[in-house]
UniProtKB/TrEMBL annotation:
<keyword id="KW-0378">Hydrolase</keyword>
<feature type="signal peptide">
    <location>
        <begin position="1"/>
        <end position="43"/>
    </location>
</feature>
<dbReference type="Pfam" id="PF14541">
    <property type="entry name" value="TAXi_C"/>
</dbReference>
<protein>
    <submittedName>
        <fullName>Eukaryotic aspartyl protease family protein</fullName>
    </submittedName>
</protein>
<feature type="domain" description="Peptidase A1">
    <location>
        <begin position="100"/>
        <end position="451"/>
    </location>
</feature>
<dbReference type="InterPro" id="IPR001461">
    <property type="entry name" value="Aspartic_peptidase_A1"/>
</dbReference>
<feature type="active site">
    <location>
        <position position="332"/>
    </location>
</feature>
<keyword id="KW-0732">Signal</keyword>
<dbReference type="InterPro" id="IPR033121">
    <property type="entry name" value="PEPTIDASE_A1"/>
</dbReference>
<dbReference type="InterPro" id="IPR032861">
    <property type="entry name" value="TAXi_N"/>
</dbReference>
<keyword id="KW-0064">Aspartyl protease</keyword>
<dbReference type="GO" id="GO:0006508">
    <property type="term" value="P:proteolysis"/>
</dbReference>
<dbReference type="GO" id="GO:0004190">
    <property type="term" value="F:aspartic-type endopeptidase activity"/>
</dbReference>
<comment type="similarity">
    <text>Belongs to the peptidase A1 family.</text>
</comment>
<feature type="active site">
    <location>
        <position position="118"/>
    </location>
</feature>
<dbReference type="Pfam" id="PF14543">
    <property type="entry name" value="TAXi_N"/>
</dbReference>
<dbReference type="InterPro" id="IPR034161">
    <property type="entry name" value="Pepsin-like_plant"/>
</dbReference>
Amino acid sequence: MRQSSFRRTTSAAEIQKMESRFHSLLLLLPLLTFLSLNPVCESGGGGGGTGVIKVNYKFAGSDASLSALRAHDDVRHLSNLAGVDLPLGGTGRADGSGLYYAKIGIGTPSKDYYVQVDTGSDITWVNCIQCRQCPRRGYHGIELTLYDPKDSLTGKFVSCDQDFCKEIGGGLAGCNANSSCLYTESYRDGSYTIGYFVEDVVQYDRVSGDLQTKSTNGSVIFGCGAQQSGDLGPSDDALDGILGFGKSNSSMLSQLASSGRVKKMFAHCLDGVNGGGIFAIGHVVQPQVNTTPLVPNQPHYNVNMTAIQVGHDYLNLTADIYMGDKKGAIIDSGTTLAYLPQVIYDPLVKKILSWQMDLKLQLLHDQYTCFDFSGSVDDGFPTVTLHFQNSLTLKVYPHEYIFPFEDLMCIGWQNSGLESQDKRNITLLGDLVLSNKLILYDLEKQAIGWTEYNCSSSIQIKDEITGSVHLVGPHTLSGGCNFNPHVIFLLLMALLHGLIVAGIL
């Protein structure tokens, strides 16, 4: 028995529905093309993310001085004593303004600000709405943001009679209770910032797992920059401000630690090869780092240097020369080069150049000792080893202290004796020697240490709450758009789901 054949007749309504499906699919093609040519940006760039989180600040309506922060409930603090991961970007350039910068969120709603990491500064500040000459675009085209305390639900001014202003000696003559606490911050290159203090919620990333973070916040008093000069003004290297991670109570680290939100210890690993690197607050357990004690009663991170070795030879200098009036050497991530007193600089450069006796030296811009050299600097010049108290050493390789500049090779060591008289004895070690090393600052033990490290790899931070250890990875921030295929996939799935629910697909 033959099976009967059946031919289904398609109704006009079904044909219309099929045509609708076809046209819907055609509508997806422009979207796919647009997404492929215009990658979706991850939240957190430029002018702030899209999400708005209402923050109920404990000290709203009252004076949140350092004293009040220190008296904050210890039980509440324990929930915040995990590590902190601050995204880091930029690159150190010996022939210009070396820039390593972090991204933080400020205000409610939060906006993103790019600030230079500076362990030599005690004050964190960002450019304020009153600053007329401040740039709107800066390093690598980053879109800069002027902070306006009136735009933030949690922003408020700091007055002269508040404890913070009194403790840091802020405010000028004639400053009264109803006046804003003013500040002025000057830097070694002659640049300065002038403004007033404000208080607001700062958003940052708390380490929650291996290479994972959760957003958290804390109240911080910082400078609102109304006027800048020098390298802080308009330039291709401009940023929103400076993230002060110095030793004093006014630094961001000290304020967060005083409120019990973080441990008073942090580390950075500046990637001199790929740019960016690691900047984390918390107890670093891996890699293990040997430390040397900080020189007491000094405003900066000073350590005792005991000797300098060039290749296998030691400079013939007495111990008191290295001490620099018993102040030691300053470790400063906000400085690009390394500065030595003339009594150290002269024999060091002489010993380095003795490895290539036929060099014709040139002095560029009255500061760089340069020469023509076409070979490998690592093969042609010695490693310089700095020795410190507690047998801690720091190796500086030729490619780290010799850099190309105007078709020549130049020595990055600088003579601080050429500076003003009050700086003639300064030994200051900047990114020239700090790059490609994990630098650990332990203010609870008043020690600092370092180890050679691949800054494009990860470090391990201990969670003080659970005792567990988590990985913190490197960052390479840029002002551009970050391609996120997961976001594109989710958008497409949402669109397709909507079409199916509507009965079109």
